[in-house]
Design goal:
It comes from Natrinema pellirubrum (strain DSM 15624 / CIP 106293 / JCM 10476 / NCIMB 786 / 157). Its EC number is 2.7.13.3. 24% of the residues are buried. By secondary structure, this protein is of the alpha+beta class. The chain is elongated.
Amino acid sequence: MYKRQGQYRGVAGVVRDITARTERKRELEEYETIVETIPDEVYTLDAAGRVTKIVPPSNDELTTTGYSPAELVGEHVSLFMDEADIATGEAEIAALLADPDRDHASFEMETITRDGTRRPHENHIAILPPDEDGRFQGTVGVLRDITDRKERERELKAQNERLERFASIVSHDLRNPLNVAQGRLAEARRTCDCDETHLEEVAWAHDRMGVLIENILTIARDRDPQPDPEPIDLAAIVDDCWDHVDTGTAALRVDTDAVVRADRARLKQLLENLLRNAVDHSDVGPAGPDGDGGRSGVTITVGDLAGGDGFYVADDGPGIPPDERERVFESGYSSDGDGTGLGLAIVERIAAAHGWTATATESAAGGARFELADVDSVGR
C-alpha cells in the first residue's frame, strides 16, 4: 500500500483457514493409496456406461482385460462385457436406485480380454453420489478375478461325480454279492450239518464286509450337509445303538441323563462307530477267523463330561498310545491293520458337522476315552 506520493505505507491481506481443505486433501491421498493397493480392479462408469476411471490391481500396469487404463477411459462397457452381463448389471443398478436401503450389489460376470479370452469375475457395484439436481451420475465397482475359485468348483464337482459313481458301484456291485452270500449262509445253517464254528467265522466276515461297505458309502456320499437337530435322550439312543452292534460279552454302563440336541441318524452312526471301536480294539478283540468265537469282556461307559458341555465314551481296554491320539481320526488310520480306518474318521466328521469337538484321551481305567465337547444340551 502506497501514499499518493508513492511512499510505502504497509500491506493489506486476507487470512483464510485451509485446515479443512488440507485434511480433505490428506483424506483423498489416503483413499487413493488404498485404492492403488487393492488386489482387485476398481473402476467408475458414467450414467451411459462409459469408463471414466479405472485402476488396475496393485502392481499391475494393465487392467484385467489386457488394456491399459488410458485405452479404456471413454469406452463403453460393451468393449469387455457381453450383452447378457450388461443386462444383469443394469438390472442390479435399477434395483439399487429403487431401494434406498441397499447400498451395493454383487453379481458374477465374464470379462472379455483384448485377445478375446473370457475370464470369470465377481463384480461389486455401488451408486455414485447424484449431481446437484439429484440425477444419476454412474457407478463405482470392484472387479475380483475368480478364475481360481471357478476352477476349484469345477474340480470339486468332477470329484463329487466320481464319488457318486464309486458309491453306486460299492452299493450295487458289493452289496448284491454280500446279500447272496448271507442268504446262502442262512440256507447252509438250515439244511447242512456243518461245524457251527466255521459258519460263525463266515458270518463274522459278512458282518465286517457290511460295516466296511456302510463306512465307505458314508465317506463317499457325505457332503457334510447341515444336521437336522432335535432333542434326544442320550441314554436311550446309546441303548438302541448297543442293540445294533455285535458286542459279544462286552458290557455297557450308561451314566448320563442328558438330553442333547443332535441329528438323530448321524448321532446314532457316531455312537455305533465308537461302541464298535471299543469292542474291536479290546484285549481279546472281536470273534473272527483267528478268535475263539467269543467277544471281549471289555466294559464300555458312556457319561457326561465334567463341565456339562458334552459326553464321553470310555472303555477299560488297552487304550491308545499318546503319540497316536492325534492320528486316530484320520481316514485310513488303523492301529492294528485289521480295521477299515474309517470308523473314527466318520465320528470326527459327524462331530464337526454339529460344531462339536472330538478328542481321544485315556480313560480312568487306562483304556481309550473319546470326548465330544461343545454339545448343546436341553435344560442345562
